[in-house]
Amino acid sequence: MEAKAKAKFIRMSPRKVRLVVDLIRGKGVEESIQTLQFLKRRAKVPVEKTLRSAVANFFNTKEGAQLEASDLYVKEAFVDEGPTMKRFRPRAMGRATQIRKRTSHITIVVGERTGTRA
Prior knowledge:
The chain is built from 3 helices and 5 strands. The strands form 2 sheets. It has a 3-stranded antiparallel beta sheet. A two-stranded antiparallel ribbon has the order 3-4. The chain has one domain (2-112): CATH 3.90.470.10. Helix 2 packs antiparallel against helix 3. By secondary structure, it is an alpha+beta fold.
């Protein structure tokens, strides 16, 4: 049994968000939330929100109602690149340079732990 949550069009570079997502992949849900709370990166906010949403989605299913949060772990977590907003900044001698404002799509899948972990 698993549940999924997606956060789309997050105004943050996917490269920066992946650094945070890599820290929680494969860990237990409680451990992941605790890790995110003490992290000093701006990307922790949307990642934690998405993780909590995935856990809530799991507990709102019929099979998930009997389990506890300690039985769950982050089965999959990945970040895809969203659309890039293109803006221009004036430069010297009448020129302009392009500014790319990147967006991210965060996907987190939580599942129940089966058996003991080696």
